[in-house]
Amino acid sequence: MNSHSYPKCIGPQDKQWLEYVKSKPQATIFHHPSWLKVLENSYGYRPFILVVRNIAGQITAGLPVMEIQRPLGGKRWVSLPFTDYCSPLYDNQEAHNQLIEHLLTAYQDHHTNSIQIRWELPSLLWIRSHTSHYLHTLPLRADSQAVLKGFKRTHRQNISTAEERGVVIKWGTEPEHLRLFYTMQLETRHRKGVPVQPWKFFELLGKEILDQGLGFILLAYKDSQCLAGGLFLYFQHTLTYKYAASIGEEQQLRPNNLLSWVAMQWGCDHGYTVFDLGRTELDNDGLRRFKCGWGASETPLPYSTISTSIASENNGKLVPIMQRMIRKAPPWFCRITGELLYRYFG
């Protein structure tokens, strides 16, 4: 029996799910069917929504899930791969408890080898939670100047430096903007020694997210040279800074500071109340200071796993080796590695 035949599941394109998501102010783009469609068509994962219904058949709780099949690792459920966090949505505590029961029942009935929820679940049988990241979010308000006053002085100075040195931010949603961003993303990932996402993933982002009015790209220019870019997603009350890229040069111009500020101003002007800066590793002190410098709140981001076995940490030992290989190899190696292997990192 696969996930689609599990009686508590519906398809992500079910109109009831989108209606339910739209009724929840705390929902983010990661609950949206379009994000699930991007992941499904990019990596071959099988998406579904685990739901709870009341006696009238209305959804009272739900959680988007992807079923991932690994060549040697068996079948597992993740909510959601390549997503910093995805919280369960529910009307009340009783519905939330029923949703957790559905997850435990699915695991107990061997629908999957393990279940990872990128959010904290209650400490119950087979559920273990661990924290290896912080989540950074910044409250937005209609008065963007009030938000600006909450930045550390160095951030305000860097914004002014970028403006004074002629950095200009341009908005884009067209294929050429996406292609330019991907080119910088490839350079950024090569520099860091990690595989880049397949180009197909960005093509689908353009079709399913940008073209549907759920995201945009900002590009920072000095004269005719593009220095940096950011890809932003938005839904309900949350504006999410999902991907950043730069050429790694001319950073004394501070293009990323100005780019972030322009995105925040857009969020303020369009009624968004949360600017999501994403997750950060616990030991990445430099990035944590940078995000907190915007006035962002820093909160632990627990992930929960439903399994009777403890996951192996051996993959972590391979990361430094892969990083060295990618950094020393030509950029095409970074791209090909992503095309072939990225789906297995989910």
How would you describe this structure to a colleague?
The chain is of the alpha+beta class. The protein has 11 helices and 13 strands. Strands 1, 2, 3, 4, 5, 6, 7, 8, 9, 10, 11, 12 and 13 form a 13-stranded mixed sheet that branches. Helix 2 runs antiparallel to helix 7 and helix 5 packs across helix 8. The model has no long low-confidence stretch (mean pLDDT 90).
Key attributes of the depicted protein:
globular, 13-stranded mixed sheet
Protein topology:
Elements: E1 9-10, H1 15-22, H2 33-43, E2 46-53, E3 59-70, E4 74-79, E5 89-90, H3 93-108, E6 114-117, E7 127-139, H4 144-149, H5 153-164, E8 167-172, H6 175-192, H7 199-210, E9 215-222, E10 225-235, E11 238-246, H8 255-269, E12 274-281, H9 285-292, E13 297-306, H10 314-328, H11 331-341
Parallel strand pairs: 4-6, 11-12
Antiparallel strand pairs: 1-2, 2-3, 3-4, 3-5, 6-13, 7-12, 7-13, 8-9, 9-10, 10-11
Helix pairs in contact: 2-7, 5-8, 6-7
